[in-house]
Amino acid sequence: MRKFLTAVAALALSLGTVAFAQEKPKPIRALLILGGCCHDYAHQKDILPKGIAERANVEFTIAYDTDKTTKHVNPVYEKEDWAKGFDVVIHDDCTADVNDDAVVARVLKPHKDGVPAVVLHCAMHSFRTKGWDNKSAPPTPWFELTGLPTVRHGAQLPIALTFTDKQSPITKGMEDWTTIKEELYNNNIGKLLDTAQPLARGKQVVKGRDGKEHTDEYVVAWTNTYNGKTKVFGTTIGHNNETVSDPRYLDLVTRGLLWTTGHLTDDGKPAPGYEAVKK
Hints:
Layout: H1 2-22, E1 28-36, H2 41-53, E2 58-65, E3 88-94, H3 101-112, E4 117-120, H4 141-146, E5 157-163, E6 177-182, E7 196-207, E8 213-226, E9 230-235, H5 241-244, H6 247-261
Parallel strand pairs: 1-2, 1-3, 3-4, 4-9
Antiparallel strand pairs: 5-6, 5-7, 7-8, 8-9
């Protein structure tokens, strides 16, 4: 009887170990924040989560503010612990005139505490506190998070993207491509901060007022380390729905997100257990 009970106990332990080993990791919990001026966030709030979830095991909560001005604070930021429970925050809002220091400090606090961030397109031009357009001033608190001061963009024209860091797991194996008509954000106000690393540059042929053509070229994708520890991925590409839904764009943003949370392998694939969930 004792041998039988011992065998049963051993079998139960073995089955429990197998079950534990087969337990899949929980999805990455992402908070996607959208709203404000100048973009079709009503559709992009659906395009981005769908495209990313088709590439990685990510579960989304969406904070979409229907206000279309640059002055309205997304209600998600009203709580002090607004990012509690999330593994990463995607900032895709366009609110340049939300510039109250206390509000911006509240937005930045969870990132200072270590919550990773993905910053997309017009979010780069949000939270313009004092000195945002002053070349001689230190980077604003928001630019310290993004890693790249940028204050303007030109007309919508195709942008030729070149991946300059081909060894980064975010860009490894990716091929250069040219967008549809898109906005190229400038870097004239300053260069990448010392905490940031460029991944891609964009070139755009522009016709001046004199009718002559010239080429603008700026960094358009990069990584940043904020407050000495927090991983941030940023790209200024992503104005129009056609670009946001482009598989190449979604690949880039998904890899950037996985990199910030530590779930991207060296060859640019989702870490085991974080591949897209088949439905």
